[in-house]
Every structure is written in C-alpha cells, then in structure tokens.
Design a protein that fits this description.
Residues 108-203 form the Core-binding (CB) domain. One of its GO terms (molecular function) is DNA binding. Residues 430-500 are annotated as: Disordered. Residues 490-500 have a biased composition (Polar residues). It is a single chain. By secondary structure, the protein is mainly alpha-helical. The protein has 4 domains: 5-100, no CATH class; 107-204; 234-412 and 481-492, Intergrase catalytic core (hpI Integrase, Chain A, Orthogonal Bundle); 415-453, no CATH class. It is built from 17 helices and 11 strands. It has helices at 77-95, 103-107, 110-123, 128-144, 155-168, 185-204, 234-246, 256-269, 273-277, 312-322, 341-352, 368-379, 384-391, 396-415, 421-434, 441-453, 484-492; strands spanning 5-7, 10-14, 20-24, 27-34, 37-42, 49-53, 58-62, 68-72, 284-285, 292-295, 306-309. A 3-stranded antiparallel β-sheet has the order 1-7-8, covered by helices on one side. It is elongated. The model is unreliable at 447-451 and 453-483 (pLDDT under 50).
C-alpha cells in the first residue's frame, strides 16, 4: 500500500495581460490589481502561466481495493491529517476483510431507524400515547431539518429548527389550528428531548459512534411562560365540588358526581390528569395503614410506579363511591383527559361562579388542582423535602416555586396586620412636641422627618435589611425515599377535611 499524503491541488491559467513580473519570496510571480485588490500569484517553471493552489487540502490514499483515491479535506491541515488517518484505517480494515459495522446503518434511511425506535419504545411498556407523541416529534424535527440519513442530523441544524418553531410555530399540517402559533420554550424543549432520546438510542444500539446532537441542551423554561396557574382557595374548591355534584350535565362520559370525586382526589393527592385517568378500583388499597393509591409507571411522568398515602376521610369517601367493584376498568373513562380537562373544569367553575382566569392572568385549570395540593402543604407547614416526595418532583426547585409564592402571599397578609404606619408617625410628632418622650422622642421624630422627606438622603440612615440564607432544604437525593409514615403525616396536615 502506498503511503497516503496531503497535498493541495494546482491549476494553471494564462498570464493576464498587463501584469508585472516580480520576484516574491524567491519565486517569480505575477502581480496585478483588480477591483481594489492586489493579487500576487506564482508562475510555473516555464514562466508561461500562473499557478493557483486549492484552498482546501486534499488526501491521496489507496482504498480497500488497492485503487488510488483523492478526496477533499479541510482548510485546516491538522483536521485534514485526522481525516486521512480515519480513511486509511477504514481501507486497512477492508483489506483485512473487516467491514465497517456502522457503514450499513449510516446509509439506511432515517425512516427505517425511526420505525425501529418506535418498536423500542413500545417494548418498554410505555403508553401508546407516549410512544406516538415521541415519534411524531422526532419525525417533525427530522423533516424540518431535511435529514434523510443519520449523518444529516447535527446539533446546529436541530437548534436552528427549534428556534424557527419558537418564532413561527409548527407547519400548518401539524398545527391543531390553521393559524400557526409560535412554540413556547417549554414546548420546544419537548421536541428537543424527543430527538435527544432518539439520538441516545442510536448510540446505545450501536448504529452510530457518537451522539449527533451532543452538546445541545434544553433551554431554561419560565422566561416565556404563557400559561400561569393558580391554586384554588378552600372556598373555591368547595364551590367547584358542590357545583359539579349539582350538575345534570355529562362531560365525555363523566357525570357531575364523577367529576366532583375526581376534583377532590386531585386536590388532595396531587395526581396529574393522565395519572387520574389511569386509576381503576384495584389502584386503591383502603385496608392498608395508611390507605394508599398506586399509579403504574407507564402513566407517571418519571416512568416509576407511584405509591401515595391518602387522608383517612378521603379514603372513606372513595371506598363508598367505588363500592365493591374490583375491576380493572378506569374509574373515570372517556377522552376527557386528552386535552379536554381544562374545558371540563371550566364548565364547572362557571357554574360555581369561580373565575377561570383571575385579574393577574392566572388560570384555574385541571393542573391547578395539583398546585392547590402543594399550596395547602405549604400553608400547613410541611417541610419542602416531604412535599417534594409527595409531589414526585425531580428537583427541590420545582417544589420551592410553589412554596415561595404561597409563603410570600401569607407573609404579605401577616404584615398587613401590623399597626398602621401613620399612627406611629402621628405618635412620634405628638410626643416630640409635648416632651413626653421617655428619652425616645428625638429618635421617633427623626423617623417622622425621614418619612416626610419622601426618600431624600439624610445622615443616620441605616443600611437595607438583608434576609439570611434559607436553611434546611436539600437539593440532592431521591424524592422517593421518605418513610410512608412521614408522608402520611404530611398528608393529614392539609387544611380542612374532605368536603361533604
């Protein structure tokens, strides 16, 4: 086998008229100016033509069949040398009868790989809806970047396509409405995670050496949060349940009583809509201490089975409602959980006279019942780490988002109970004038003058108070390791009994 080599291709052209022949760096060259630029190009040995070199390096080597090949490299010489080593290695493996195990997969259409990925997801006991949605998102991105083989998938192309979705939304054939709407950061991240899962599977299944989108990460959600939710107050939850019970309307197979029980369970367990829709009579164990509800991993967000304690009064109500049935059929069947839960609860909220959207623009949809659960835990003084376990949040930060809003709201209400500021100012001025100051009148009068100055700087102004760092809240560890007894105790601390 001949030694491979790097070289630059040369082409020659006739010497342009009117050029100056000079000696440059020991070589005879032609120099001329055109369009504001000066060109200096070497001559051939006979000094009859000018010689151009290619910008890129080229690689000359022998392939597995012993035939000489020339392929373009890169502008950078070091990168071209690395490519040459890779080409030679493949040629030597071919000559030794060892084929490239990844070559066939590189040439296969991406549609075939995606079909295999779909079968892989289904084999892991994922729900059909999860499999279909994940594969649909992968196909959407692959089509969006115009990829036909694995090599067409790059981090740059995927990133640019996701940015385009955030600007202009999905194509008309995929959007649920005719008008295209830009995707939020959260929705864009769902598409990214689907493609990331597909690319990781390609590596794990040894169809590609490296993850094509390695280095690409999800964007920080929350900056463009388009739908903010609010927890329901005790009064609003009571009104919602009572309105549902009194309703004679059936929503996608659910009667008013069915919906009332559903709302109560959601607000007292924190279960998500898809998890509630999966529950059957055998999901409950009313005889255990404490009573428990179990959700199969196929329906949870983290794909792990969830076991949650129930309040004693809630368990008693559910036992009576379910009766002696031990079937495996869903307690709340139908299609209400498929993008219709918000419409269902909105119907009952309107009947109860509870606003679906408050003055701050926050919504009270079905997921708000999960917020209600967490807010009630916060008000009951349950430790955030315990609440994280009950909510099955992957990080303590998700739990603290709800806790912080709830606690700040309660603190604001508490501060409003302090004596009015005007009373203190009036008292200071009165005592300063009469001399009945107990030695403190000058100090009080000073604060009264400062308040009257409306923000003007004076001597003696103290530094702003800085709160101390919060303690006692960890950030690591699994949210599923607390004892059942402690979780049960936390559940029982929720405010108020289950509504009758």
């Amino acid at each position: 086998m001949r030694q491979p080599r790097l070289f630059k291709k040369r082409t020659s052209k006739p010497i342009p008229p009117g050029v100056e022949i000079i000696t440059y760096r020991g070589r005879r060259c032609a120099r001329w100016s055109a369009r504001g630029k000066t060109y200096t190009v070497p001559l051939n040995k006979k000094r009859t033509r000018i010689v151009y070199e290619s910008e890129n390096w080229w690689i000359r080597f022998e392939d597995a069949a012993g035939e000489r090949q020339e392929v373009p490299g890169y502008v950078d010489k070091t990168s071209s040398e690395a490519l040459m080593v890779e080409l030679v290695r493949k040629a030597e493996r071919g000559q030794a009868g060892i084929g490239d195990p990844l070559e066939a997969d590189r040439k296969r259409p991406l549609a075939d790989h995606i079909a295999d990925f779909e079968m892989h997801l289904a084999s892991k006991d994922n729900t059909p809806d999860h499999v279909a949605l994940t594969v649909q998102r992968v196909r959407s991105v692959v089509d969006g970047i115009g990829a036909s083989v694995i090599g067409d998938i790059t981090a740059g192309r995927v990133s640019e396509h996701l940015a385009e979705l955030r600007r202009n939304g999905l194509p008309a054939k995929e959007a649920s409405k005719r008008k295209r709407k830009p995707l939020s950061i959260s929705s864009s991240n769902h598409y990214y995670r689907a493609v990331r899962s597909f690319c990781r599977w390609l590596v794990q299944d040894r169809r590609v050496e490296r993850n094509p989108i390695a280095g690409l990460s999800a964007l920080k959600a929350g900056k463009d949060l388009k739908r903010r939710r609010r927890p329901l107050t005790d009064e609003e939850l009571a009104a919602l349940v009572q309105a549902a019970r009194a309703s004679d309307k059936t929503f996608r197979g659910l009667s008013g009583e069915d919906r009332a029980v559903l709302y109560l369970l959601a607000a007292n367990s924190g279960l998500r809509v898809s998890e509630l829709a999966s529950l059957t009579p055998v999901s409950f164990d009313f005889d255990s201490v404490p009573p428990m509800v179990r959700v199969l991993g196929a329906y949870t967000k983290n794909s792990e089975q969830a076991e949650l304690p129930l309040r004693a009064d809630l368990a008693a109500m559910l036992r009576d409602w379910i009766g002696n049935s031990r079937s495996g059929k869903p307690l709340w069947p139908g299609t209400w959980a498929k993008k219709a839960s918000a419409k269902m609860i909105r119907m009952d909220l309107e009947a109860a006279g509870v606003p679906y959207q408050d003055a701050a623009g926050r919504y009270a949809d079905a997921h708000s019942l999960r917020h209600t659960f967490l807010s009630n835990l916060a008000r009951a003084g349950v430790h955030p780490k315990t609440a994280q376990t009950l909510a099955r949040h992957s990080t303590i930060g998700l739990t603290m988002n709800v806790y912080t809003h709830t606690v700040i709201g309660d603190l604001a209400a508490a501060v409003e109970n302090l004596p009015p500021v005007a009373l203190a100012l009036e008292d200071a001025e009165t005592q300063a004038a009469t001399g009945t100051d107990d030695g403190q009148a000058p100090v009080r009068a000073q604060y009264a003058r400062k308040a009257d100055s409306r923000g003007r700087k004076e001597e003696g102004r103290g530094k702003p108070w800085q709160p101390s760092a919060a303690s006692g809240v960890g950030t690591g560890g699994s949210p599923n390791l607390l004892p059942q007894a402690e979780m049960s105790k936390a559940r029982q601390s929720l405010t108020g009994p289950v509504l009758e």
